[in-house]
Specification:
The protein is α/β, with parallel strands linked by helices. It contains 24 helices and 17 strands. Helix 16 links the parallel strand 12 and strand 13.
Length: 575
């Protein structure tokens, strides 16, 4: 039997190390899915319920492994559903190839049923996006797409008409071999010398460490020791920086700690390592800034930079270390660490679960999860308040992993990312911290857990609202509107889907129920009814925020919502 174009596509993906393709079947994808079936020893089709979930799952697998992954959608609406998940993959900078099936090649331009132009629509969320219009383009165009995705750590899209996928492959070009290894990027030594001089002459150095510090833990600790520098981590750097770190002072930003904000604002030199922390208002205005990044285009993007260094964090710190002078003055480090310890104690005081006191504090749920989860657990978390609780109460140890929509900030990411994580690591504990709004948005893929036999544990923070949006409204002095969620008993929904379901309404039940759920061999869902009126104060509480809350309280009373203010005070002032 002659090899079809679809066979060459699948064999090329296998050669690139792709083990699974996430997607939803459709007639324009028949060639691809049939070829995957015939190559099932080397690659599998992961059938999810929504293409957006497919893209999120592929991105999660790539985040955890660093390897190329793939997803697919049928023509028109099918591949359009990939877009949001692919935006997340692209902004997270993980290598993903998406197959966007297309209508029959001869019908293009006729406003045919389900006709769209994916090569235009996907352009903004990819580094490479091309239409296959002739059989001879395969495997060459796919090879270019794969190499682009790997080398640029982003999304590539091939648009493949369904009829063309079933045609006989005519190209004699051999299936390529791919190397997924990335080259080391060494910094310019002249920049290293300038940075060393600046670091040696500064008295209060603070380090801001991001995801670019992956694999650089020992170098980071050595340099922090020499500089007597507190280390603030960006959220994506948390899993690589927080553990075994005597210089850790937590995060800064809207989700972070006042200690991280203090350590940065009190510095006379900020050393930024592999981070693209986006919020300009949290950078010091007077300090000298030294920024290290493997991507030169990111230097100075967030704040003014005095010395910019293009290079990998490991290579840069290795080059810097011999040129640094050991600092004897540790007052800045001690003050920052003392501030962090106080901040940490304050946060722990908020995470209480007093028997009989309802509703449950969501901080307490997360704290218990942190204590009972496996040492190598993989956590995913929805945007909004689950992100805040994950940032503040999940502790990293060098083996645990974190998955979130860090840069794109999309709702509904946690469940599909958990699917991708469990697919690639079937024997590890995978826990999704889902908001009630995020879970409901892609709830259809909860059904995938039973169908795919994935033992993912879903913990829903059920507060009956889009809670973080409500907080944003209150801080702007706006009476919350359009944020209430009328939720079912999610545990009953789980049971109807053939998944173990639990509902927790009292704090004394949190630990035993979560412990039981995590111990089950299959999937489980825990519906935690948590408090809606938790204040999430950023570390720099400025006048505008205070004014906003004051206006909110006045307007709430005028609109007959005075009971909300009472609940807010009871929750946050009288614990």
């Amino acid at each position: 039997m002659a090899r079809r174009v679809a066979d060459v596509v699948v064999e090329t993906l296998i050669s690139a190390g792709v083990s699974r393709v996430y997607g939803v079947s459709g007639d324009s994808l028949n060639g691809i899915t049939d070829s995957i079936r015939s190559h099932s020893k080397d690659i599998t089709w992961v059938h999810v319920r929504h293409e957006e979930a497919a893209a999120f799952a592929a991105g999660a697998e790539s985040q955890l492994t660093g390897k190329l992954t793939a997803c697919a959608g049928s023509c028109g609406p099918g591949n359009l559903h990939l877009i949001n998940g692919l935006y997340d993959c692209h902004r997270t900078r993980v290598p993903v190839v998406a197959i966007a099936a297309q209508i029959p090649i001869r019908e293009l331009g006729s406003n045919y049923f389900q006709e769209t132009h994916p090569e235009i629509l996907f352009r903004e969320c990819s580094n490479y996006c091309e239409l296959i219009s002739h059989v001879d383009q395969i495997p060459r165009v796919l090879e270019i797409a794969i190499r682009t995705a790997i080398s640029k750590s982003g999304v590539s899209v091939i648009v493949l008409p369904g009829d063309l996928a079933l045609d006989e492959a005519t190209s004699k070009r051999p299936i390529p071999n791919f190397s997924g290894e990335k080259p080391n990027v060494s910094p310019f030594l002249g920049d290293i010398s300038k940075a060393a001089d600046a670091l040696n002459s500064s008295t209060k150095v603070t380090i801001l460490a991001g995801a670019g510090c992956a694999g650089a833990h020992s170098q980071l600790m050595d340099v922090a020791s020499i500089l007597q520098a507190p280390i603030v981590h960006a959220f994506r750097g948390k899993e690589f920086v927080e553990y075994d770190n005597p210089y850790d002072v937590g995060m800064t930003g809207l989700l972070g700690f006042s200690s991280g904000y203090y350590a940065m604002m009190d510095s006379d030199l900020l050393l930024m390592l592999g981070t693209d922390f986006p919020y300009q208002q949290f950078y010091p205005s007077e300090a000298t800034i030294v920024q290290v990044d493997i991507r030169g285009e990111q230097l100075g993007r967030r704040t003014k930079v005095d010395i910019g260094i293009i290079g990998g964090v490991v290579e840069t710190l290795d080059a810097l270390k011999p040129l640094l002078t050991q600092k004897a003055d540790s007052r800045h480090l001690k003050a920052s660490r003392d501030h962090y310890q106080k901040t940490r104690k304050d946060l722990e005081d908020l995470a209480k679960g007093e028997p009989g006191r309802i509703p449950i504090h969501p901080q307490y749920v997360t704290k218990v999860l942190n204590e009972i989860a496996a040492d190598d657990a993989i956590f995913s978390f929805d945007v909004g308040t689950p992100t805040i609780w994950a940032a503040r109460y999940l502790r990293m140890n060098g083996k645990r992993r974190l998955l979130g929509s860090f840069s794109h900030g999309s709702m509904a990411n946690a469940l599909p990312q958990a699917i991708g994580a469990q697919e690639v690591f079937p024997n590890r504990q995978v826990i999704s911290l889902s908001g009630d709004g995020g879970f409901a948005m892609l709830m259809g893929d909860f059904l995938s857990l039973a169908q795919l036999h994935l033992p993912v544990k879903i913990v829903i923070f059920n507060n009956g609202s889009l809670d973080f949006v409500e907080l944003e409204m209150k801080s702007a002095g706006i009476v919350d509107y359009g944020t209430e969620l009328k939720n079912p008993d999610f545990s009953k929904l789980a049971e109807a889907a053939g998944v173990a379901g639990f509902r927790v309404e009292r704090p004394e039940d949190v630990r035993p129920v979560l412990t039981k759920a995590l111990s089950l061999p299959g999937p489980a869902l825990v519906d935690c009814v948590v408090n809606r009126q938790e204040l999430l104060i950023p570390p720099n509480l400025n006048f505008e925020v205070v004014k906003g809350f004051t206006l909110y309280m006045i307007r709430a009373v005028l609109n007959g919502k005075g009971d909300e203010i009472v609940d807010l005070a009871k929750t946050n002032l009288f614990r």
